[in-house]
Predict the structure.
Amino acid sequence: MLHTMSTTPEPAAERSAAKVNEEIRALWFRSGGTLNMDERREYQRLVLEWASASPRPTQAA
């Protein structure tokens, strides 16, 4: 039997902004307040995820 592997990533389950914020805080805590290059990339990815998960402010009419 032949098995194939998909080359397209599965969409990640959307997490709440609060969950992503917890991960950001944990990253900063683990790093002692100074991020190396890998941690900076992870931080940037998390901030983008947090921004997309954050509720959008509604504009007053």
Observations:
- The radius of gyration is 17 Å.
- The chain is about 50% helix and 0% strand.
